[in-house]
């Protein structure tokens, strides 16, 4: 069986330990020859890298592992897959993404609204550069991208690299939802055959079939309405995530046709969500004080102790495993189905063909084969078209250096609405991001 050469870009991420553990768990089904981690932040990556040395010594001794900040060393090798989880600007800029809008009276969130706009404008440049670096040495390597905001990044990459068919943008939130449905219904989530449509962080499950072809969605809807909804790993989640999942019940009660992505709360109930957010302590602060601190403290402890046995930081989470099983399906031409981000081209008949939509597809060695959705109802079509226009204008604002298109994008976003407020927020974000964004004129 072929062993694969993998590059992880963003090796210093708090999510990396889960990814590394998934590689250990799935070493028989997805054997790895060489694993390289790349990050621009040497200090963060060293903590994770030294943890990895201990983990692999105990659980995956055959793997060849290295971590580096040297791009030439990382890219100039025979790569099969590149897993990308970059965060341009780090948590420091994420905190600004959240707090600047809140200080001006609108939602501040990592990937949604003006926070997502700011993050997207930073991510596009680095993602374009990354693809060019990979392709300089590896024309056929699959680039599996987790970098957020995934919809904006996907649109930008499709425009800049229209003929590159080995880039696949993915998000673990639909996977998290499927696993949460599985726990709620006491079923294996991998047995589900989902039908899903939308944009990234802006979509709905319309059906959820079991192995016999029975649609489980009506039963699942009733369970959510009767008992609420929690993430599959709720014991490990921060308070804000539990509140986010709890909002699913409200969304299903108001719009019972389908089951929503959790992020839709920001667009459907911006006033309600805004009132719950604390401008002085946002989710970025929660992550830095919570998950980030836990992960780095535990990784340091493991490195010093020389053993990862019983380590609390090592768990096989959805984020880590999802990208591995996606790669497996591609590498071995299995055609397993996943929710991924693709150019529409008629998949949803009454949406623009150039929209980068999120739908179910089978993944093969030749790439994704999407399942047709057909036409969608007016309400959902209207929501998606407005959001897609915002995303499209955001990408054009970056590529053209256009202040006008940036203003149009934020004015369209349902978390802002007011053109006056959009200009106020945009001007503040420009000042905060002057080291990252192109000049907007």
TrEMBL record:
The keyword Ribonucleoprotein does not apply. Its cofactor is NAD(+). Its EC number is 3.2.1.122. Belongs to the glycosyl hydrolase 4 family. Signal peptide: none annotated. The keyword Lipoprotein does not apply. InterPro entries: Glyco_hydro_4, Glyco_hydro_4_C, Lactate_DH/Glyco_Ohase_4_C, NAD(P)-bd_dom_sf. It is an enzyme of class 3 (hydrolase). Residues 196-415 form the Glycosyl hydrolase family 4 C-terminal domain. Binds 1 NAD(+) per subunit. It comes from the Bacteria. Transmembrane segments: none annotated. This is Maltose-6'-phosphate glucosidase. Keywords: Glycosidase, Hydrolase, Manganese, Metal-binding, NAD. GO terms for molecular function: maltose-6'-phosphate glucosidase activity.
């Amino acid at each position: 069986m072929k062993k694969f050469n993998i590059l992880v870009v963003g090796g210093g991420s708090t999510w990396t330990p889960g990814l590394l553990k998934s590689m250990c768990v799935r070493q028989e089904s997805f054997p790895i020859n060489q694993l390289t981690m790349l990050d621009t932040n040497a200090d963060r990556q060293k903590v994770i890298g030294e943890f990895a040395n201990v983990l692999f010594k105990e659980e995956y001794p055959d793997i060849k592992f290295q971590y580096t900040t040297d791009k030439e060393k990382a890219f100039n090798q025979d790569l099969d897959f590149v897993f990308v989880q970059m965060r341009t600007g780090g948590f420091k800029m994420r905190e600004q993404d959240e707090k600047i809008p809140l200080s001006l009276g609108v939602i501040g969130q990592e990937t949604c609204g003006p926070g997502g706009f700011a993050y997207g404008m930073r991510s596009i440049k680095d993602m374009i550069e990354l693809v060019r670096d990979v392709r300089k040495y590896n024309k056929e390597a699959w680039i599996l991208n987790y970098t957020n905001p995934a919809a904006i990044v996907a649109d930008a990459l499709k425009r800049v690299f229209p003929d590159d068919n080995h880039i696949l943008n993915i998000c673990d939130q639909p996977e998290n939802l499927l696993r949460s449905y599985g726990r709620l219904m006491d079923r294996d989530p991998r047995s589900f055959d989902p039908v899903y449509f939308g944009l990234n962080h802006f979509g709905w499950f319309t059906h959820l079939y079991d192995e016999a072809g029975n649609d489980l969605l009506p039963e699942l809807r009733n369970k959510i309405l009767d008992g609420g909804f929690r993430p599959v790993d709720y014991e490990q989640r921060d308070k804000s995530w539990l509140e986010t999942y709890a909002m699913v019940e409200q969304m299903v009660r108001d719009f019972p046709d389908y089951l929503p992505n959790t992020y839709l709360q920001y667009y459907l109930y911006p006033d309600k969500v805004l009132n719950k957010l604390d401008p002085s302590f946002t989710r970025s602060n929660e992550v830095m004080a919570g998950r980030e601190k836990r992960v780095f403290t535990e990784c340091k402890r493991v490195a010093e102790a020389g053993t990862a046995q019983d380590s609390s930081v090592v768990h096989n989470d959805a984020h880590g495993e999802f990208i591995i099983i996606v790669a497996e399906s591609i590498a071995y031409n299995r055609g397993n189905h996943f929710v991924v981000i693709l150019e529409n081209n008629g998949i949803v008949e009454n949406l623009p063909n150039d929209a980068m939509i999120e739908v179910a597809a089978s993944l093969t060695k030749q790439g994704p084969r999407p399942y047709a959705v057909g036409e969608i109802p007016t309400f959902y079509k209207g929501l998606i078209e407005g959001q897609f226009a915002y995303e499209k204008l955001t990408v054009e604002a970056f590529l053209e250096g256009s202040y006008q298109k940036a203003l149009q994008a934020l004015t369209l976003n349902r978390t802002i609405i007011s053109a006056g407020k959009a200009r106020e927020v945009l001007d503040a974000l420009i000042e905060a991001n002057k080291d990252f964004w192109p000049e907007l004129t």
